[in-house]
Amino acid sequence: MTTIDHIAIRPGDPDYDAARTTIAGTAEPAVVLRPTDVDEVSAALEYVRAADLELAVRSGGHSPLGYSNSDGGAVIDLSRMDSVEVLSDGKVRIGAGATWGPAAAALAEHGLAITSGDTRSVGVGGLTQAGGMGWMVRKHGLTIDSVLAVELVTASGEVVRADAETHPDLFWAVRGGGGNFGIVTAFEIQAQPVTTLHFGTMAFALDDVPQLLKSWAATMDSAPEELSTALSLMPGFGDFPAGAMLWVAYCGDDLSVLEPLRSLGNLVSDTVSEKRYADVLEEAPHPPEGIRPEIGNTLLEQLSGDCIEAIAAAYSSGTAGRVVFLRNLGGAMGRVAPDATAFAHRDAQVLVVSAKFLPVDAPAEVRAAARSEWQTIRRHGIGSYAGFLASDTPEDLAALYPPDTLARLVEVKRAWDPDNVFRRNFNIRP
Ligand SMILES: Cc1cc2nc3c(=O)[nH]c(=O)nc-3n(C[C@H](O)[C@H](O)[C@H](O)COP(=O)(O)OP(=O)(O)OC[C@H]3O[C@@H](n4cnc5c(N)ncnc54)[C@H](O)[C@@H]3O)c2cc1C
């Protein structure tokens, strides 16, 4: 067996505390392996399987459920495999361990950008396999819609390249099927010629939440694909008053399309201005101290009147604060056939993510009430997005994949990972 000692971090090592920490907190892995190339990934996997350790694979470490960490098991952490290489014709080879902030900055040097997420520290490996929704989703689709090929190490340790011609089943499955099929080491992605966009926030008074939601939905129905927006209803916290914030990202030239947004409600402030794409990505927010949010997400085919009522009621109910974040979708994302990738919810026009901010020690019945409140919104949805899913009940898992998609994913799983080595994820059981 190839030695892995030079890439291993174990309890007691100086880097161990950092290596066992992700956005979800700390765990006690027996070993964290940090390979620098694909052969070391194979060797790491061989070691983990021979030692019969539970395996967690990590790119950016942003799984809210702590899937990229393990108590007592092994983590294969790809953070050293973070190169961003521009090939010909705007194609980019990007290491799965890269994060989107540095990747965007590297691509900006070439006048390029990849449609991806909004947060700097989120990993390329995890986000891309979930789908990838960001400020250019309406213009350039999900991140997976720009993926041309993936390099991955399979459960048997083999290094394969999957694309539309070679291993098309695997290529289909990794685009939306999470980390179920192997350790992705690199993606080849088509980037777009993007340098700047108009980006910022418009804040609105909270005098009529249902009307604000209605006007936003109607305006976005006829908006050009270059315009992406997200409406956030935020509770008051400490010195921060409650408010409605519209995030605006426009990658076109005709600035008059922004005007209808300014009259969605009683406009309080407007920070929209031209910015480099790489500068609009933000640091990850941290939940306030002592708070453990109850988070859910659902995809809507339309923001109906009933759903608006449910959102407005849930937002204003109870003493604890609820955030509701609505991102409009459609455009290029919706033009991809539902069976072209493992992300099938192509008819979704709106993603709703909502979190009830509860104290860490909130009683079980208070948490259950928050979840029931969320169900009043969720029942209007057609499914969920894995990227923002922070719970993994059977109901959550069923919402990720329609039955036909799930059946196909199971087939691919059986072919490539029959022993379910890759199971710290939204697991497709072989
Ligand atoms: C603050 C924050 C902001 C976010 N913003 C966005 C956004 O704007 N748009 C969006 O679409 N999503 C967003 N997400 C969701 C994000 O895409 C998912 O949480 C994603 O899984 C994180 O990827 P990661 O590599 O950072 O996470 P990790 O925790 O490293 O991995 C997440 C999952 O993917 C698996 N995995 C990771 N890398 C690999 C690999 N190379 N091979 C095989 N399996 C792998 C892991 O085992 C784990 O199951 C956000 C999440 C957070 C916490």
Protein described:
The protein is of the alpha+beta class and 430 residues long. The protein folds into three domains: 8-77, 2-Layer Sandwich (Uridine Diphospho-n-acetylenolpyruvylglucosamine Reductase, domain 2), CATH 3.30.43; 84-193 and 406-416, Uridine Diphospho-n-acetylenolpyruvylglucosamine Reductase, domain 3 (2-Layer Sandwich); 196-398, Vanillyl-alcohol Oxidase, Chain A, domain 3, CATH 3.40.462.20. It is built from 13 helices and 19 strands. Strands 12, 13, 14, 15, 16, 17, 18 and 19 form an eight-stranded antiparallel sheet that branches. Strands 7-8-11-9-10 form a five-stranded antiparallel sheet. Strands 1-4-6-5 form a four-stranded mixed sheet, covered by helices on one side. A hairpin with an 8-residue loop joins strand 13 (227-234) and strand 14 (243-250). Helix 7 crosses helix 10 (305-316) and helix 10 packs antiparallel against helix 11 (364-378). The mean pLDDT is 95. Residues 22-23, 56-64, 67-68, 78, 96, 117-119, 122-123, 125-127, 129-134, 178-179, 183-184, 284, 387-388, 424-425 line the site of flavin-adenine dinucleotide.
Features:
Uridine Diphospho-n-acetylenolpyruvylglucosamine Reductase, domain 2, alpha+beta, 8-stranded antiparallel β-sheet, 24% strand, Vanillyl-alcohol Oxidase, Chain A, domain 3, 430 residues, binds flavin-adenine dinucleotide, single chain, 5-stranded antiparallel β-sheet, globular, Uridine Diphospho-n-acetylenolpyruvylglucosamine Reductase, domain 3
Bound ligands: flavin-adenine dinucleotide
Helix content: 25-40%
Note the total helix count.
13
Question: What structural category arises from helix and sheet content?
Answer: alpha+beta
Termini separation comes to 28 Å
CATH architecture of the largest domain: 3-Layer(aba) Sandwich
Count of all domains: 3
Question: Tally of extended strands?
Answer: 19
Q: How much of the polypeptide forms β-strand, as a percent range?
A: 15-25%
Q: Supply Rg.
A: 21 Å
Q: What is the arithmetic mean of pLDDT?
A: 95
Largest sheet: 8 strands, antiparallel
Shape: globular
CATH hierarchy class name of the largest domain: Alpha Beta
Identify low-pLDDT runs. none
* CATH topology descriptor of the largest domain: Vanillyl-alcohol Oxidase, Chain A, domain 3
